[in-house]
Amino acid sequence: DILKIKRGAGLSSIFALSGAGTLTLSLALQDIVKKSLGGFALSTSEKFAIGDNIVLGDGTQGTVKKIGWLNTDIKGGDELITSIPNSQLTDLRVTNRSNQKYSQVKQTLRFDYSDVDRIPALVTCIKDEIKESCPTVITDGSHPFRVYWTSFEADHLEISVDCRLKSPPVGDMFYDARQNILIAIARAVKKMQINFAMPTETYKDFVGYEERMADKVKQQEDSNAD
Q1: Where residue 88 falls among pLDDT bands split at 50, 70, 90?
Q2: pLDDT tens track for 107-165
């Protein structure tokens, strides 16, 4: 009888361990299947493809290098590759910058109050320079193209420049177009013989820079003489 009891207890332990092992294996397989299905869903969806430049809802951004069954690899601008589980990717918001047809370049310009009378003419000059020298900027009215005097601030006047480009917001074409816009703005400002305003603190530091440097040199000379 004692042998039967021990044998029964042993079989119960084996069955219990077997059940726990089966449950663990089942949960592990369930996780693998979930991740694999996520990879299959991503590879067949139109969210992004290999080579696309994307931005994720958690702030991760870069170029998609690989879409695997379990993970997707994204290379950032610093050349580092981040491997993200597909089960996480399916729940994140994705912005595919490579699929965009248009992009935006926006700048806020600052000018001194001494040039207040010439600001309207400067606005017109900036618009004309951008139209003439930046062919990728959309100026036909189908998208916003704005150059406006927008604000009186404590120590400067502000002009806002807001352009839309006929290119996605990635790659050399975009950066070349943005640079051309900045060059056009600089050319207009130079043509109008107006200077950009410095932030107040920077200006204060700049004004006293030569005097402070002269004092430091004199102190150093006096110290050496001693």
Answers
A1: confident
A2: 999 999 999 999 999 999 999 999 999 999 999 999 999 999 999 998 899 999 999 99
Residue that the structure tokens 């070349």 belong to? 176
The CA–CA distances, whole Å, from 156 to 40, 110, 116, 118 equal 55, 6, 9, 14
pTM for the full model? 0.67
The gap between the terminal CA atoms of the chain, to the nearest Å, is 107
Listed in sequence order, the residues at least 6 apart from 192 whose beta carbon sits closer than 8 Å to its beta carbon are 118, 121, 122, 125
Rounded to whole angstroms, how far apart are CA atoms 20 and 14? 10
* Average pLDDT of the residues in 172-191: 96
* Main-chain dihedrals φ then ψ at residue 35, nearest 5 degrees: -65, -40
Whether 82 and 74 have beta carbons less than 8 Å apart is answered as yes
Percentage of residues of the chain with pLDDT beyond 70: 69
131/139 Cα distance (integer angstroms) = 7
Q: 73: which strand partners? A: 66, 83
